[in-house]
Amino acid sequence: MIDFRSDTVTKPSPAMRQAMAEAEVGDDVYGEDPTVNALEAKTAALLGKASGLFVSSGTQSNLLAILAHCQRGDEYIVGHQAHAYRDEGGGAAVLGSVQPQPLMLDDRGMFDLEVLDSTVKHQPSMYHFAHSKLLCLENTFDGKVLPPAYVAEAQSLGRAHDLRLHLDGARLWNAALSEGQTPAEVADGFDTVSVCLSKGLGAPVGSVLVGGADLIEEARRWRKMVGGGMRQAGILAAAGNYALDHNLDRMATDHANTARLAEGLAAIPGVTIDGPHTNMLFVSFEGVDPTQLGEQLAKQDVLIFPGATIRLVCHINISTEDIDRALAVFGGAVQELARP
Ligand SMILES: Cc1ncc(COP(=O)(O)O)c(C=O)c1O
């Protein structure tokens, strides 16, 4: 199966499973799991922060960050299409009484900084307002890397307004590779950063929230409260350690495969392509019903999520040979389905 739906569909390799099976474990709620502790320290060091917290998912990581930064009645400012606003069940509002203040993102994942400037509630003493407390950015956004100069400007504007800064870096690794930066450089200037192990890195479970020691201690308390304190979690953390040691640099192959896919698809008549953007690319085919296309591809073991625009994601379980086979399958299916 060549599964382009997401980089969350990856399966752990035999070597990763071996590392999980052999992991040394202890009770992580007591802080006694050596494998979890090693993962937290390793991730924090990679991202240039003091402390790390192993959590079950990117959603939990973003939630804990917001809860650690904000009190009831505060607000976090976030893109209207950002995962931490649109795709996390309203967790910060539901569980923390923290109001989201969404700002319109453009298709590169950026909001207008003048709009940010005028949106911050400047007078927290005004009892009409929630207190603007936190600014959240997402990098990469739909595979697109935020320009470092934009990030720096957003950060300094946020600081000027006394905002804390959180980065949803679920795919920060891809941004770093693409920009030729270190992960720490992409994470620089943020108070907290959430990174996922279960996407391009190929681990089955988990994210790590990193930041200053006090903030991470606060997040640890919230993690327990939302039921995220896991006991012999080293079995899961071992996959994360393995992924950081073995799968980080190889993500360049995913970017190269995405470029190869884009180049090959460009030869199909009627195609419109947005990308490649790191490990993602967005396509549509004129005169082809996306649902029929999805069915046709699935019959030949190529999986997509059908839609007006189809997102294709490359990852560790898609090889360069798979790309070439998928291109042949796409070409045949579009030719068969295209209305004259
Ligand atoms: C940008 C971004 N942030 C956070 C998440 C949440 O991660 P999880 O699925 O582990 O909760 C995702 C998931 O796809 C994501 O794409």
What this model shows, in words?
There is one protein chain. With 340 residues, the protein is of the alpha/beta class. Helix content is 43%, strand content 18%. The radius of gyration is 21 Å and the shape is globular. The mean pLDDT is 97. The chain binds pyridoxal-5'-phosphate. Pyridoxal-5'-phosphate binds next to helix 3. Pyridoxal-5'-phosphate (PLP) binds next to helix 3.
Which terms would index this structure?
340 residues, 14 helices, binds pyridoxal-5'-phosphate, 3-stranded antiparallel beta sheet, 7-stranded mixed beta sheet, globular, alpha/beta
What is the topology?
Layout: E1 2-3, H1 14-21, H2 34-46, E2 51-55, H3 58-69, E3 74-79, H4 83-86, H5 91-96, E4 99-103, H6 113-119, E5 131-138, H7 148-160, E6 164-169, H8 172-179, H9 183-187, E7 192-196, E8 207-211, H10 213-225, H11 234-246, H12 251-265, E9 271-277, E10 280-285, H13 290-299, E11 302-303, E12 310-313, H14 320-337
Parallel strand pairs: 1-11, 3-4, 3-5, 5-6, 6-7
Antiparallel strand pairs: 2-8, 7-8, 9-10, 10-12
Helix pairs in contact: 1-11, 2-11, 3-10, 12-14, 13-14
The chain binds pyridoxal-5'-phosphate (PLP).
Short description:
By secondary structure, this protein is of the alpha/beta class. It contains 14 helices and 12 strands. It has a 7-stranded mixed β-sheet, sandwiched between helices. It has a 3-stranded antiparallel β-sheet with strand order 9-10-12, covered by helices on one side.
